[in-house]
Amino acid sequence: MTVASTTRPLDEVAVRTSFARFRIASIVEGIALLVLVAIMVMRYGVYGGEGLFTSTSHTWDQISEIWSPIHGLIYMIYVVLAFDLWLRMRWGIGQMLLLMFFGVVPVLSFFGERWTHQKVEADLKRRPTLQDEARLA
């Protein structure tokens, strides 16, 4: 933590708004990644080999070609919203890398969202905010 991040108060309203967007993005990314994994299992695991299901493999290829870029866009939006939260909280670079990692491993974004929520709440209690001055007045 740098000197600037400890002396300059956080904007609690902006942080909570940013976290709300990040929370939605985490849930959407988690679901999108699970859908992508299911498509890949169907494409390569169930219907990918020679044998009984080869005629439907082309269908899963097409579904994969459509869903993969959609998931990529969802992940990019997730990273942008994670970056926004990271900037507003003024965390270290390790925290940003962790936020990005949460969106890469299936199901981890759900746990990462809960962990991030606890970290945001703890930091808002511990660190000064602009709204603290208004509450005292």
From TrEMBL:
Its main location: membrane. Keywords: Cell membrane, Membrane, Transmembrane, Transmembrane helix. GO terms for cellular component: plasma membrane. It is a multi-pass membrane protein. The chain crosses the membrane at residues 24-46, 66-86, 93-111. Residues 20-117 form the DUF3817 domain. Pfam families: DUF3817. The keyword Metal-binding does not apply. It is found in: Cell membrane. InterPro entries: DUF3817_TM (IPR023845). This is DUF3817 domain-containing protein.
